[in-house]
Amino acid sequence: MTIFATSIGVGKHSDKSIRELVGARRDALALDALFRDTMPGAVCTLLTDADATATAILNTMSETLQNSGTDDVVIFCFSGHGTPDHRW
């Protein structure tokens, strides 16, 4: 069994009209550190702010699901505003 853990934190946006979330990046960093420190062998991915584009997130999700098997555990954590239409 392999644990795949992706931590995403988006606090700063390229669109300056979107209010900054000071804790979103910190949330992702803390979860990533927790997974890395307490789950030996876990496959961890960290995406924050400018690196957490929609394309990067979707690619990471797709790759993770393609690489995981039926006995594996997949964890996706997101901290941020989400999309204007509340889908993410």
Identify low-pLDDT runs: none
Binned, the helix content reads 25-40%
Order of helices and strands: EHEHE
Number of strands: 3
Amino-to-carboxy terminus distance: 28 Å
Q: Label the structural class.
A: alpha/beta
Q: Number of domains in the coordinates? A: 1
Q: Determine the mean pLDDT.
A: 93
What is the C-alpha radius of gyration, as a whole number of Å?
A: 14 Å
| Strand neighbour order, sheet with most strands | 2-1-3
Question: Could you say which overall geometry the principal axes of the C-alpha atoms support?
Answer: globular
Beta fraction of the residues?
15-25%
Largest sheet: 3 strands, parallel
Number of helices: 2
Model description:
- This protein has 88 residues and is of the alpha/beta class.
- It contains two helices and three strands.
- The chain has one domain.
- Helix 1 links the parallel strand 1 and strand 2.
- A three-stranded parallel β-sheet has the order 2-1-3, with helices on both faces.
List strands and helices in order, with pairings:
Elements: E1 3-9, H1 24-38, E2 43-48, H2 54-67, E3 73-79
Parallel strand pairs: 1-2, 1-3
Describe the structure using short key phrases.
globular; 2 helices; alpha/beta; 88 residues
